[in-house]
Amino acid sequence: MAVRDVRPGLRNEEGIAAVLGILKQTFGERFQTGQSFREQHAHTTTYLPPQLPDAVVFVESTEDVKAVVAACAAHHVPIIPFGVGSSLEGQVNAPSGGISMDFSRMNRVLHVSPADLDVTVEPGITREELNRELRDTGLFFPIDPGANATIGGMTATRASGTNAVRYGTMKDNVLSLTVVTADGEEIRTARRAKKSSAGYDLTRLFVGSEGTLGIITAITLRLQGIPEKIGGGVCAFPSVEAACNAVIMTIQMGIPVARIELLDDVQIRACNAYSSLDYPEKPTLFLEFHGTEETVALQSAQFAEIAADCGGDEFRWTANAEERTKLWNARHNAYWAGRALASGLDGLSTDVCVPISRLAECVVETQADIEREGLLAPIVGHAGDGNFHVLVLFDGKDPASVAKVEAFTERLSRRALAMDGTCTGEHGIGQGKMAFLKEEMGGAVDLMRAIKRSFDPHQILNPGKIFAAAE
Amino acid sequence: MAVRDVRPGLRNEEGIAAVLGILKQTFGERFQTGQSFREQHAHTTTYLPPQLPDAVVFVESTEDVKAVVAACAAHHVPIIPFGVGSSLEGQVNAPSGGISMDFSRMNRVLHVSPADLDVTVEPGITREELNRELRDTGLFFPIDPGANATIGGMTATRASGTNAVRYGTMKDNVLSLTVVTADGEEIRTARRAKKSSAGYDLTRLFVGSEGTLGIITAITLRLQGIPEKIGGGVCAFPSVEAACNAVIMTIQMGIPVARIELLDDVQIRACNAYSSLDYPEKPTLFLEFHGTEETVALQSAQFAEIAADCGGDEFRWTANAEERTKLWNARHNAYWAGRALASGLDGLSTDVCVPISRLAECVVETQADIEREGLLAPIVGHAGDGNFHVLVLFDGKDPASVAKVEAFTERLSRRALAMDGTCTGEHGIGQGKMAFLKEEMGGAVDLMRAIKRSFDPHQILNPGKIFAAAE
């Protein structure tokens, strides 16, 4: 299975033993080596086989982080930062062993500035916790990758999700980071000003670096005002092309849709079965609009016109919260509905992203591939960004089934690359997409490696992610 | 004059002589060593003393760029990329001599994709040329730093300007770059997909790197639909605080202003004198709204209410293009009006950026400093971003006057830093702000240097910018 580099790296047994001794003494009960702790911290939502860390440390402060880094740096032992383990490409695996650094207890809101529309948090807070804490301010943090991920994990993997089409991805919403580097220094990547041109953009360098360049200990995020009104709607189309044309026209006209999601016919069928719904089994767009009563109505009317021009069915929409939830039910439960198509099987969620002009072509070719191979694989897309997910159902215990799904994801990545797209729009490289990074980035990977080498010469920061451990 | 590091670096005379020989042979008439060419290419809009390159090469293709890099890399000779020379912090100076690489002939539009709202250009095209070429597509490139800068220069300095409040800065609008590295390799930092999580964000690393990490040879930019309607308006306020409160409320309410500019009373006085206008000599906000007839009217009405709540005078606005130009006249001519306050003097345009909640305080303290020192220095701010410029008028031939303005800009930078702001919101570090980078970024500067060292070990890429040449 050449395309999946999950080879164990070299283990520094002596160093690991030394670090375990040090951390046990320093962290007492917050240091755990039990099998269940270790298993839970190697758990990822992909089918990649788990690779357990040697221990888990529950950090509660930057001082704790520095203490772990000091021990691991002295003995050249890997550190794997851990949020909630919702990453999809093996980012929390420990191919060379080492220490899983659990941030669940480092989850405070440090500072909210309503006038500046920003908040500073510790990395372990989840996005839902954050939004609960912000509720009284009238502000919210918009990025929604689906899972209730931690802000630290979302930052480290450059997460995005359904409303990136309006609010951007993590790269657009992180103002500044505090980071502990491999040599134990604490640095801050930027001030709290909304923009700066002072030197290299270290903030964006750490966003998406998957824990391989430094350990994030605080994050300043941009916030948005909670919309006065939220509208939602659904529209079925005769073909993926027709749906994608409607998306392109919507974006071109500058309608500021908050979400515009594509579900293919297989996914709709899955949703109908899962939630006893009766959506027409056709490619369908789910939309959400944020604004005032007036602007939400205006945007919906504009979209309805576009949908009609593109041959869509009637556009059903509502500004009533309860009805909106009902309309959006299928989208919200898409993942579980997909899994329920074959409840005994494993599910591999993979993603690619292409220029929006190529989205229909890429989805249609992928559907043909799925059919040709006899796979069961519903498709859900963040259509406004040209980004889509395929949930491939397969039997993880059957090598032939695994080989088939790997060959499929390989073709999918190459298809996206051939269309000037990326092998991963929002899941990251981790271990699962390592083989395609070089194909996608060519000589630019050498620059990435040069940065990695200069920031982390002893390879203690999440080794074996983005680049193979051995290199 | 300690704060301004414009010390000449070491000159590699032998290497320079060798490179001049090679390039003369390769480039013929496109290679120039005449004094006037060299002077024009060391011209910057600041008062920093010019430091001339040894020669100017007019590149016309990536192959030309590679040829120059090969020669300069072999002989360890500096390359200074040159757009139109509108940078403000000495970015095109040649403290160690070397080759100015002029991009004015490498200014083609390579590819427009209206469906994807993107365009790929060569670095030498200016933003006005680009928008002229785009006109028939119904699209435009919004970033407007004032000067008719090149897209390459704007990318290299992470430019922003008046409408960054709505459209972001260059970091938000560059999708991908093609770059020639110090060892002559051509790399591409990203595909044309709207988002990606494939490895480190090299795009954002090169944006704002001021030519010190690689030479940009192509840029893919996000475009916007030309607004159906543009509205503009003006409103005077009793104080800077009142104006800034109106700005904060506007942003908090999510009114998508395209521009919201603050001119202080001195700047208004200058504009009145320069263009025979009769604006009240009070802190004044200039606004622009992009949208449809309806949304522009709605936004203007919303702002008028906010302005009234904040004690502003009547908000005069119009959706008529001609009247808008008239209303905005003062803002458009602000720089020249400021210079005309004392036509015999030199002008130093400097900028800082603070969290918007601190903007009023920072401007008011700066005004007090100006008054205390007896300086003449109008203030113009991109208020929605917390970013403002001070145009200090001084006598460049009088050392006492120079010392005074340097001490002033030093205090200004420190004032912004004390408010969790940056010493430069959009002009870059160049040579002029080098002394403050360490104060602003602390240990993070070591990471920046590590990147510089690993990308450019022989210091041939615009040495002496961002970091001192000797280091």
Automatic annotation (TrEMBL), chains A, B:
Presence of keyword Cytoplasm: no
Gene Ontology MF term list: D-lactate dehydrogenase (cytochrome) activity; D-lactate dehydrogenase (NAD+) activity; FAD binding
Top-level EC class as recorded in UniProt: oxidoreductase
Domain FAD-binding PCMH-type positions: 49-226
Transmembrane portions of the chain: none
A Pfam short name: FAD_binding_4
Organism superkingdom: Bacteria
InterPro entries: FAD-bd_oxidored_4_C (IPR004113), FAD-bd_PCMH (IPR016166), FAD-bd_PCMH-like_sf (IPR036318), FAD-bd_PCMH_sub2 (IPR016169), FAD-linked_Oxase-like_C (IPR016164), Oxid_FAD_bind_N (IPR006094), Vanillyl_alc_oxidase_C-sub2 (IPR016171)
Cofactor: FAD
Protein's GO biological process: lactate catabolic process
Record keyword Transmembrane present: no
Listed Gene3D superfamilies: 3.30.465.10, 3.30.70.2740, Vanillyl-alcohol Oxidase, Chain A, domain 4
EC number(s) reported in the record: 1.1.2.4
Keywords: FAD, Flavoprotein, Oxidoreductase, Transit peptide
Family (UniProt): Belongs to the FAD-binding oxidoreductase/transferase type 4 family.
Protein's name according to its UniProt entry: D-lactate dehydrogenase (cytochrome)
